[in-house]
Design brief:
Radius of gyration: 28 Å
Mean pLDDT: 80
Oligomer: single chain
CATH topology of the largest domain: Rossmann fold
Protein name: ATP-dependent DNA helicase
GO biological process, one term: double-strand break repair via homologous recombination
Largest sheet: 7 strands, parallel
Family: Belongs to the helicase family. RecQ subfamily.
Strand content: 5-15%
Low-confidence stretches: 525-536, 629-652, 772-836
CATH class of the largest domain: Alpha Beta
Catalytic activity: Couples ATP hydrolysis with the unwinding of duplex DNA by translocating in the 3'-5' direction; ATP + H2O = ADP + phosphate + H(+)
Number of strands: 20
Keywords: ATP-binding, DNA-binding, Helicase, Hydrolase, Isomerase, Nucleotide-binding, Nucleus
Number of domains: 6
Number of helices: 42
Shape: globular
Distance between the termini: 44 Å
């Protein structure tokens, strides 16, 4: 495995969980993998085919995403291809059927429509796995449900004995169960990594979407573009996409645009220009969401509140996938929060509508936070942080706290007097003295607090309302798409304690929106917001000459990429170029030892880079063969040194973990400070010992060496307690939330012990450290009903595999499926060789020209095409977020 990792991908060690997952796949085990974007999920299905010499089939939702991945793999020497409507290689299908590719990508529609003959021939040639990427699309509880993903279980009948691997970056516990059941995963090995993207800075600002605001936004983007950084600006509407793009072009900034009303050729060209660094800025609707595999995007800007927190995490996750410092800004205005009905339009039932509303409300709360944004994001996905992150706008801003008891009393009293039958708007109108018909008809103009809130704007009161919801003084409930705000038990307690308006102090941190409204009278964007967060080479201890060399080598990479028609990042990543600039290797042998350099790179590009490094270093008076950068921390659990022999720490760890966590780890591991001593070290106010422990465990998760024997001893984690925790996890059936596990254990077992145990398990060190503990199966490998994500028990899988995975007679489907349906799949599986008048572009033009069009009307319009061909195009366009369906009609995004 390690040889394939270095030979093809240039890395000397695996990242957390990768080796464990790959080994399970090689053992023939189904896997369910939930890991953050940028954590290396793709390696988990790209290494097995290189080890087994069999094809890995990867189901992916978007053609553009597959094209990026195929291009990148080819530059690494991995034989890969995709099957889809835009494939121009006429021999790709036949070569794929014969197993001539290491990695074969296809959409779910293509996977289901392929004839059984294809799968039989490919399996005869050899299939090592079937991976389902973006697997959250399977679940109706997910934020991006795709009906065609639900049909993938039909392939079980053909691919008997082939392990299925479901991968996603965003899946709650409920979604994970749904994925497992829908794909009929058999006793899957479940891995849930951390959702924390340490290298990303999160920030939110309210805005007014005026021309002046757009001009300030353009200035921010231009600063990043000037230093060669890539930026994606996500807009919620096509009109805003075109408006922002026009402003950038007018300012002389080369930028691409991507939205559903563009022709397919124009979208492809825009996408290609961005990934090849011909333009540094892409302005796009969410149609560009998952469809980009560019690792060096340095900034993501959301121009409007996203439709869900899952969508925001997914889209912001396109940023900094190479682990270098990057920033995510979200600009919103309150009118964004009125789009719930639009997002719920396609809900099939009340359950799905509620899921959409819950996700949308979570995104709104994220916008209105006054506390740590990373902490809120992680809590939403079931992960807890012991302390604030120190890497978001709320953590880094100067704290602005105030006693808001008077204002809180007025708002809570008014909401209570209005009966809790409204949203925030009406009680706020009452406070501001409105005599609207609805207020007069309900006699709310007679209330004591009528007109008592004129000192603040409506938006200020709404911001306070959001703050009080976040602090549980108000309760927001949803019925259908309508929101109702009422006073919570905590709010009732506050009111009862306040005999008069200025009675009970309530000190809260004001949100950025409240501060802006008080200072400027409206939500404004401050010029240069977040620009100081652009990561610089100087901050990473690059000299001025080394920085010049780095920029020159980027130009060399760009020229090579243009010569061979590929993206610069596909040749090698930014971090590899930084290593070149810092180490300046003089020979191919020295260059090949640098992390990120693979055999394919050495054979094709090493001569060019060595020549340029030698020449440019001489011009800049820089010595060659500089001392190597400290290697990254050892990630491979199988070779970790339990005794804790100190190893060099990766030089960008402070950017990943933060200085406080790195310092805590170094003091404990290298200088053998106690937790208590670290808590007081150079601090006027000490932090908690639990915070110190959490810092050190975070460092361990990033691969930092740890003396686990000593750590367990100081935390109090014995083999007996570890055994009890393992049994508690098996009983609870999940390791995502600590409280249920804690409740199953004696009082003397602390949260620190549980966290330590989970970290050790995640590193694969449990057997080595707790060798004296009583034997007990791993929770994620428990058979029967111990694992709730299994969907079915192991016994059921073993007892009747054909019933579980479907029939093995070469037909896609289960034994109970009607023969007619199977025959239909078989007949329509082979693509028609005849030309038709229905194309993606022509169908898009038709939909764009009408205010909604029914399926029958589309089929009738393209009378030269088969109905199923038209349906396939519509499904493809819908999956690309270019059209959507509402009330049975297809409409343009």
């Amino acid at each position: 495995m390690e040889a394939a990792l270095k030979g093809y991908f240039g890395y000397s060690s695996f990242r957390p969980y990768q080796r464990e997952i790959i080994q399970k796949v090689l053992d023939g085990r189904d896997c369910l993998v939930v890991m953050a974007t940028g954590s290396g999920k793709s390696i988990c299905y790209q290494i097995p085919p290189l080890v087994t010499k069999k094809t890995a089939v990867v189901v992916s939702p978007l053609l553009s995403l597959m094209q990026d991945q195929v291009m990148s793999l080819k530059q690494k020497g991995v034989k890969s291809e995709y099957l889809g409507s835009t494939q121009t290689n006429s021999s790709a299908f036949n070569e794929a059927e014969k197993g001539m590719f290491d990695v074969l990508y296809m959409t779910p529609e293509k996977a289901i429509s392929l004839p059984s003959r294809f799968w039989n021939n490919l399996q005869a040639a050899g299939i090592c796995l079937l991976a389902v990427d973006e697997a959250h699309c399977i679940s109706e509880w997910g934020h991006d449900f795709r009906m065609e993903y639900k049909e993938l279980h039909l392939l079980r009948g053909l691919l008997v004995g082939v392990p299925f691997v479901a991968l996603t970056a965003t899946a709650t516990e409920r979604v994970r169960r749904d994925i497992s059941t829908s794909l009929v995963l058999c006793n899957p090995h479940v891995v849930v990594g951390s959702f924390d993207r340490h290298n990303l800075f999160y920030g939110v600002k309210s805005c007014n979407r005026s021309i002046s605001f757009i001009n300030e936004l353009v200035k921010d983007v231009s600063k990043r573009s000037a230093v060669g950084e890539s930026t994606i600006v996500y807009c919620t509407t096509i009109r805003e996409t075109e408006q922002v793009h026009e402003a950038l072009v007018t300012a002389g900034i080369k930028s691409g645009i991507y939205h559903g009303k563009m022709g397919s050729r124009a979208r492809e060209e825009s996408h290609r220009s961005f990934i090849r660094d011909e333009v540094r800025v892409m302005v796009a609707t969410i149609a560009f969401g998952m469809g980009i595999d560019k690792p060096d995007v340095r900034c993501i800007i959301h121009y409007g509140c996203p439709k869900s927190l899952e969508s925001y995490y997914q889209e912001s996750g396109r940023c900094g996938r190479d682990a270098l410092s990057s920033v995510c800004w979200l600009y919103y205005q309150r009118s964004d929060f009125t789009k719930a009905d639009f997002y719920c339009a396609d809900a099939k039932n009340g359950t799905q509508r509620k899921a959409i509303m819950d996700s949308f409300m979570a995104a709104q709360k994220y916008c209105l936070l006054a506390t740590c944004r990373r902490r809120f994001l992680l809590q939403y996905f079931g992960e807890e942080l012991n302390s604030d992150c120190g890497n978001c706008d709320n953590c880094t801003a100067v704290k602005n706290v105030r006693d808001l008891s008077k204002e809180t009393f007025l708002l809570l009293s008014c909401i209570k007097s209005c009966g809790g039958r409204w949203g925030l708007n009406l009680p706020i109108d009452v406070l501001r003295g409105s005599r609207a018909k609805k207020i007069v008809d309900n006699n709310y103009d007679k209330l004591q607090m009528h007109g008592r809130g004129k000192d603040y704007s409506p938006n200020w009161w709404k911001a306070l309302g959001g703050l009080l919801i976040a602090h549980d003084y108000l309760k927001e409930t949803v019925r259908d798409t309508f929101r109702f705000v009422s006073v919570s038990p905590k709010g009732v307690k506050f009111l009862s304690a306040a005999d008069k308006i200025d009675g009970t102090p309530l000190v809260l941190q004001l949100t950025a929106e409240m501060i802006d409204l008080e200072e400027h009278g409206s939500s404004q964007h401050k010029e240069g917001g977040g620009s100081n967060l652009v990561p610089t080479l100087e901050s990473e201890k690059f000299s001025e000459d080394e920085s010049k060399l780095y920029q020159m080598l980027l130009n060399v990479r760009m020229e090579l990429a243009q010569d061979i028609g590929t993206a610069p990042y596909a040749i090698c990543g930014d971090q590899t170029i930084r290593n070149f600039a810092k180490m300046r290797p003089s020979t191919g042998a020295r260059l090949s030892n640098i992390d990120g350099v693979n055999q394919h790179f050495v054979s094709r590009f090493s001569g060019t880079f060595i020549q340029n490094i030698t020449q440019l270093s001489k011009e800049l008076n820089l010595p060659l063969d500089n001392s190597p950068l400290p290697p990254p921390p050892t990630i491979n659990p199988a070779v970790e040194n339990i005794a804790g022999v100190p190893k060099p720490v990766q030089n960008n760890l402070p950017g990943i973990l933060g200085d406080a966590k790195v310092t805590a780890w170094e003091l404990w591991q290298k200088q053998e400070f106690s937790f208590l001593k670290i808590a007081y070290f150079r601090r006027a106010v000490p932090i908690k010992e639990q915070t110190v422990i959490a810092y050190i465990l975070d460092a361990a998760r990033e691969g930092c060496e740890l003396d686990w024997s000593r750590f367990c001893r100081e935390v109090g984690l014995t083999p007996e307690i570890a055994s009890g925790i393992r049994l508690a996890i098996a009983k609870v059936g999940s390791r995502d939330k600590l409280k249920p596990i804690k409740e199953e254990l004696p009082e003397n077992v602390t949260y620190d012990m549980i966290k330590t145990f989970l970290t050790i398990e995640g590193r694969g060190l449990s057997e080595q450290i707790f060798s004296n503990a009583p034997a007990s199966s791993h929770a994620s490998e428990a058979s029967g009903n111990d694992n709730p994500a299994d969907g079915v028990t192991a016994d059921a899988c073993d007892a009747n595999p054909s019933a579980k995975r479907g029939q093995t007679d070469g037909m896609v489907g289960s034994a109970e499926e009607p023969a007619m349906k199977l025959q239909k799949i078989e007949e329509h599986g082979v693509e028609s060789s005849g030309t038709t008048s229905a194309t993606e572009e022509s169908v898009l033009e038709l939909v764009a020209s009408r205010d909604g069009v029914l399926l029958d009307d589309v089929v009738k319009h393209f009378n030269g095409s088969k109905r199923e061909s038209v349906v396939e195009i519509l499904v493809s366009l819908e999956s690309e977020f270019e059209i959507y369906k509402k009330n049975g009609k297809f409409m343009i995004m």
